[in-house]
Amino acid sequence: MPPRAPTRDHLDWPFFDEGHRALAAELDGFVAGGGLGSIDHHDVDAACRELVARLGAAGLLRHCVPKAFGGASEEIDSRALCLLRETLAYADGLADFAFAMQGLGTGAISLSGSQALKEEVLPKVARGEWISAFALSEPDAGSDVAAMACAARREGDDFVLNGEKTWISNGGIADVYTLFARTGEAPGTRGISAFVVFADTPGFTIAERIETIAPHPLARIRFENCRIPAAQLLGNPGEGFKIAMRTLDIFRPSVAAAATGFARRALDEAVAHAKGRKMFGATLADLPTAQSTLGEMATAIDAAALLTGRTAWRRDVQKLPTTREAAMAKMTATENAQWVIDQALQLFGGRGVQSGAITERLYCEIRALRIYEGATEVQKLVIGRELMKGATG
Ligand code: COS
């Protein structure tokens, strides 16, 4: 049986154009043609390397970087990113992860890197030859980015790095890391800078590999007198926090899209199950309680997709800031998807919790999305603060 494909009704919404509809057809062809098939997910490192290679060979990673450096469009197109993540998440959470990290891991380079750094890193990442990572969180600085302690001390033409980062996706397999470290120009957010660090730099080590409920490469990484050229600084000293936030503004809607991909898969599986499941002399789908649940699930998905499409369109077409919109989309889509998947599992009954069931996989996949790239609580804070900025009082 060919892999299940997502419905594409929402591509008729005014947020999308012919290019997006063509990309959706290309993606569906890639998945149906076995582009993600026959990969053993038990070895997540090998699986991710293979997925990155395949996505690169298929030209799909070009959507993670700007055109001048091997990308698909002049600027990173948020709607394309969302479409890709939604489709990949629908089919395979690890494929979505492998794709997403190529963008997040290099987003700050695309935004603020020197010409030389962009030329060195972005084309290789777009071809799937290099794997990238985004190193922001620390053991004592997760949501509170300003509390970071990992230090970068200037010494002549170099910076010397000391400290740790944790929850680093692709930690252990990445070739290149975007690192945020304290350079101390000022206390708090104004004393952080962004750097590019290559995995083979002396003094850089993997301190610990971390396992999670939806396995993917993840690590705590360590810098001990790790010396990098000052040319690997992104933007100006002290700009790191803003670079991190601007990067997250681009990628948070794509997290929303991935969550919606998982939720769409849960809904489609639940509908198929409800239509086939015999119950009380009819089918589960004939029960008003099931119809009501499915109706709520579909509405929760559309609400999330509308907020996500609005954010990506505002960024791509209107070229306006999307801090508030991205936070709304990420919060709503990840929370709604968790609820939708839980409802799908409930409709499956006992089979829903069986090991190996699609609902089990989706249940595990969705959970981290409510936390990473800014937990739901952080998104509420961001929305509230943006609201205050525009309010008179
Ligand atoms: N774009 C550009 N600049 C931004 C920005 C954005 N989206 N958000 C904040 N800034 C600027 C602010 O304007 C402020 O600038 P000035 O110093 O010039 O006034 C500065 O950055 C500091 O902002 P703020 O005061 O809001 O910082 P806080 O320390 O209060 O933190 C939160 C804000 C909590 C929102 C932030 O730390 C955050 O998003 N945390 C979650 C991080 C995250 O996603 N972690 C997961 C890692 S990736 S898996």
From TrEMBL:
The record, for PROSITE patterns, names: ACYL_COA_DH_1
What cofactor is this protein dependent on?
Answer: FAD
Q: InterPro entries recorded for this chain? A: Acyl-CoA_DH_CS (IPR006089), Acyl-CoA_Oxase/DH_mid-dom (IPR006091), Acyl-CoA_Oxase/DH_mid-dom_sf (IPR046373), AcylCo_DH-like_C (IPR036250), AcylCo_DH/oxidase_C (IPR009075), AcylCoA_DH/ox_N (IPR013786), AcylCoA_DH/ox_N_sf (IPR037069), AcylCoA_DH/oxidase_NM_dom_sf (IPR009100)
Citing just one GO molecular function, the answer is: acyl-CoA dehydrogenase activity
**Annotated Acyl-CoA oxidase/dehydrogenase middle domain residues:** 133-226
Indicate yes or no for the key word Transmembrane helix. Answer: no
List keywords of the entry alphabetically: FAD, Flavoprotein, Oxidoreductase
Q: Name one Pfam family in it.
A: Acyl-CoA_dh_N
Does the record carry Transit peptide as a key word? no
Q: Which residues form the Acyl-CoA dehydrogenase/oxidase N-terminal domain?
A: 19-129
Family the entry assigns = Belongs to the acyl-CoA dehydrogenase family.
Q: State what protein this is by name.
A: Alkylation response protein AidB-like acyl-CoA dehydrogenase
**Protein's organism:** Shinella fusca
